[in-house]
Design a protein that fits this description.
single chain; 308 residues; Ribosomal Protein S5, domain 2; 2 domains; 8-stranded mixed sheet; 12 strands; 27% strand
Length: 308
């Protein structure tokens, strides 16, 4: 059994998507494969592989008791193998709660996951995993996400769609509308990685702690999302980026990324998702890549390289 889920980028609505803002999200050409094979022993043997084919995490679970037997973890940067194993186990247990027949078989399973992007890119290593496990378990991926983690769910919607979407939460229910986002200035859009992984859970928690209503800003961002889709010129698109950055900046009390890091850049720059890491959207031209690489930001992808 083979499952594949698309990665994600949130073009508009970061933070406020949690409170019902209409947001524009894009599935990426990068994602994650999940391959399931049966075996005789009643165990679940799990292996997670990087985009270069290296195994960075392995675990063995007892299927009858659904508990961790052993794990190995290879990373110079982050985390602890047992924490990752327990998180994975929690997802599997939640899937089994929703569908008790999941993993209830006389045989065991060998599962391999493989990212098609570097782990620190922040394109959805967790959401692609959850979506694929949900497909395997025949459960609702949004329910599995919310039972396992926090989040708006836009990343699950991207995992399941092959084109741009409007995403909105209404009464805690996901509303997904596929749209045609095909700007005639696509060649002027780039994605630059800021060389650091941003913890979206931490960003969400900080936003939640503000405990105030942002109804006016939610309406403004929803309107901007519509305008992003309608923009016919780069000039108009740049104006929308500046307006969006100012609104989110006023809410989370952080400087926009352009003001913070790239004040001398000739185009506009927009944060995507939790501010402070991962990718940013950049408008520019043939000089864009040279500008960022000169400043030490080597990962610069064109729109067509990144977006489905």
């Amino acid at each position: 059994m083979n499952y594949y889920s698309n990665g994600k980028l949130l073009l508009t609505g970061e933070y406020l998507v949690l409170d019902g803002a209409k947001s524009l999200a894009l599935p990426t050409k990068f994602g994650q494969d999940l391959v399931v094979q049966k075996m005789k022993e009643q165990q679940l043997i799990w292996g997670s592989f990087t985009h270069t084919g290296e195994c960075w995490f392995e675990a063995v679970f007892d299927l009858q008791k659904l508990r961790l037997v052993s794990c190995t973890f290879s990373s110079k940067k982050e985390g602890n193998g047992e924490i990752i194993a327990e998180t994975l186990l929690d997802i599997l247990k939640e899937a089994k709660k929703i569908n008790p027949s999941f993993l209830a078989s006389e045989n065991g399973f060998v599962v391999k996951t493989a990212l098609t992007f570097p782990r620190d890119w922040g394109l959805g290593s967790s959401s692609t995993l959850i979506n694929s496990i949900a497909s395997w378990a025949k459960v609702d991926a949004f329910q599995l996400l919310w039972n396992s983690f926090k989040g708006s769910g836009y990343d699950i919607a991207c995992a399941q769609n092959e084109r741009a979407i409007f995403y909105q939460l209404e009464n805690d229910r996901p509303i997904v509308e596929p749209v045609n986002f095909n700007p005639n200035f696509k060649e002027n859009l780039f994605f630059v990685h800021l060389n650091q992984k941003q913890d979206s859970k931490e960003g969400i928690l900080k936003f939640r702690q503000r405990e105030q209503s942002f109804q006016k800003e939610i309406e403004q961002i929803s309107t901007i999302s519509d305008e992003f889709l309608k923009a016919t010129s780069l000039i108009d698109f740049n104006k929308l980026i500046v307006e969006h950055e100012q609104i989110i900046s006023s809410i989370i009390k952080l400087k926009p990324v352009k003001e913070n890091l790239f004040l001398d850049y000739f185009g506009e720059i927009k944060s995507l998702g939790a501010w402070g890491g991962d990718f940013v959207l950049v408008t520019g031209n043939d000089e864009t890549s040279r500008y960022f690489k000169k400043k030490g930001f080597d990962t610069v992808l064109s729109y067509s390289e990144m977006i489905l």
